[in-house]
Amino acid sequence: MADLIGTDETWGAVRDKLNNRAARNPSLVVRLGDSRTEFEYSDPSTQFNRTTRDGVAWANAMMGLPFREVANYGISGSVIEAMQPYVAPAIATGAGYCFILDGLNNTDAAKPGAKTAAGMFDALDQLLVQPLIAAGMRVGIMLEPGANSANGKIAIINEYIARIVSAASSARWGGCVDVFDIREAVLDPTGGAIAYKSGFSFDGAHMNGKGGYSLGKWLAPKLSGIFPQRPQGLTVDWDAQGYGANQAFRNPMFVTTTGGTAGSGITGSVPANWAMDAVNGSATVSTGAASDGIGNELIVNATWSADGGYVRLYQGITSQYLFAGDILSPEFDISVDASPTNLGGVGAYQSYQTDGGAVETAYDLNSGGFGALPSEAMSYRTGAPRRTLAPFTTLNFYAGGLYIRGAGGSGSATVRIRRATNRKSYD
Fold it and tell me: N or C of the chain: less Cβ packing under 10 Å?
């Protein structure tokens, strides 16, 4: 129990902390921070479009999606104290974990929230961390990496970091706070000034796709001992039975290897019930035994001729099998063979329209405008942001699938797709 007992805490306080923690879902996550948190989405007001520039999203994908983010309260330009109004809503979500990345804007003397390092730490501690852990949440603080433009603030940033590290290693936070020194992953260690590694940032303060991916790769093993694992998707074909009541995709393991629709730019055999097409690109597709030994995989040799060119795999689902209140999120296991060129990302999506209204489309790991990923083999699970079907009279269409997108110019990649799922969720 010692790791739960802070200075001057009574057993009653420790008991309350234990009870609060037990009431929370350890697989649900919320996030607080400035633009670097907000930029997980390119549409922060609706949060339909998750991008490739976010390290936490990449880490979750690389671990097989063990946690689900239920709220992102990042606000561009915010200072630490501006996050205080979002603490109560964050607690109310029932989430068990909160990521925080904030502080850089507090070093700007032109901002109302400008503070000394001690003032920054006190705001973080008293306004954010203490209320969160008192409510039973575990907190993950990402240490401030700074920005290329903040070199005059290095002393303040370093003291702020030192105060966080000291608190996390003492009894102050009762073992409820994890600290991640993300500077190791994203900053150039060779210079005497703050600078992102080459090609990791588009403006010296915010990461691009390469930076986000690299941070996720660094962060994933550190988070793997924190979040409980969940089932990784279909493992046997009979898991797909009950189509419509639970699993919304047909032929999710590509067992029936022919009979699908090959649209523009596609050659080869598309598995039954699936369709593929390409824009400013092309692909040769085939199906073989999955490289992980479970079922079949769809092998896509994709090329694109321009930035933003893509190859798409998708499946339409009719209103016979979808109902108001259904909670949907298409997911796929993805492996990319070594040495892709100008690959922006491979991400799941879902798109639908009801009663002739607006078309709603939600993307995961959308690379639009955020540059190419590293040219290396990669493996992860992609899942589109969850959406709940509102009451409707007519379902005009629903489609779920994934995009293989190029970035930065012409390029190519061999992508292996396994274990497609679109299970209906019940919470």
Answer: C
From the options 3.10.350.10, 3.30.160.160, 3.30.413.10, 2.60.120.260, give the CATH code of 237-421: 2.60.120.260
Pairing of strands 360-366, 261-262: unpaired
DSSP string across 294-337: SSEEEEEEEEESSTT-EEEEEEE--TTS--TT-EE--EEEEEE-
Among left, alpha and beta (phi > 0; psi -120 to 50; other), residue 355 is: left
- Out of 3.30.360.10, 3.30.230.40, 3.40.50.1110, 3.30.70.20, select the CATH number for domain 2-223: 3.40.50.1110
Block means of pLDDT (10 residues each) for the chain, 427 residues, are: 43 52 86 96 93 97 96 96 97 97 89 86 97 97 92 90 94 94 95 91 95 98 91 61 71 93 98 97 96 88 96 94 91 97 97 95 92 97 94 95 96 96 81
Q: How far apart are CA 158 and CA 120, in angstroms?
A: 12
- Amino acid of residue 71: A
Structure tokens at 242: 């009950």
Three-state DSSP class for residue 92: helix
Put simply, whether the predicted model's pTM sits higher than 0.90 gets the answer yes
Rounded CA gap, 307 and 407, in Å? Answer: 5
Q: What is the distance in angstroms between the CA of the first residue and the CA of the last residue of the chain? A: 32
